[in-house]
Amino acid sequence: MTRAKRSLAAAIGGLMLVAAAPAVAQASVVSNQGLIRTSATDVLPGQSVGDIIVVGHDLTIGGTADHVLVVNGNVDLLPTARVDTVIDLGGEVRTLPGATVRKLLHATLGNPFWSGAIVAGLGALVAWMGLFAAGIVLTALLTVIAAALRESIEVPLAELEKSARRAGLSGVFVTLAVLALSGLLAATLVGIPVAALCLALYAIGALVGLAVVSVWIGRMIIGRDRAREVWKAALAGVSFIVAFSSIPIIGQILFLVLWLAGVGVTAEWLWRWRHRRKGHRAPT
Fold first, then answer.
1. Residues 137 and 254 in one domain
2. Torsion on CA atoms 34, 7, 10, 47, rounded to nearest 10
3. Which are the contacts of 178, defined by CB distance < 8 A and separation ≥ 6?
4. Is residue 79 domain-shared with residue 159, that is, in the same domain?
5. Would you say residue 30 has pLDDT above 50?
6. Transmembrane segments in this chain: where (predicted)?
7. Which residues pair with 156 in a beta bridge?
8. How far is CA 64 from CA 49, 99, 100, 126, 158, in A?
9. Calpha distance 58→44 (Å, rounded)
10. Is the pLDDT of residue 25 over 60?
């Protein structure tokens, strides 16, 4: 890793150190403390801080700082300023005679290349963080669902093992039916809550079915004998699903197929449960 990249990583790392504090720093010595600001900020002469991040506003430095990151704002370095690294994205850097800066990286949004690179980079970072968070939540949720259904999950697993293709086709038909019904209900003001309820029940059923699919995949990966505990198989299966789904296009197609299979598994499970109840109620 180059020195510039290490400096950028250290500056961004300051974002995690501390939450908002006053806009004007106190005129006292503060060592190794990260600061994040969403307002105009002054580092007074004689003050020493660690890493500083300012978003959407200007930063004036008259003291000493380690790494400085300013997004969409200007940086003014007074003659008494002593800074290791300054990174300014989208503003201007004004250095007065006497100021000392070891490394300076300046990218103005007026430049089409930098503008596009910054926007694309931030968008990709946000998208990646969103997918990462969603993957963690999905992994935990499906593992918990599978563990909660451990006493009865063998029934839908047996149906899935018999014909995964049939489960997928059932999921397609159920999904189309739910979408069509929800669309008709949403056409009227009174039917909107009912449509929302239908979609919520559909999502719950799909998650339950996806937990069953995760156990099925997990047993294929680590073996049935080594995955006797349902939650272990579910964890292995959903980890595979989340990891593979991060592949562009192919991963999303796979996730859609597994989602539909999960919907079909739940639908068939409920259908068979309903018929069993009718059989028990039938007169002998």
1. yes
2. -10
3. 198, 199, 202
4. no
5. no
6. 113-146, 167-188, 194-218, 230-247, 253-271
7. none
8. 6, 10, 10, 32, 67
9. 14
10. no
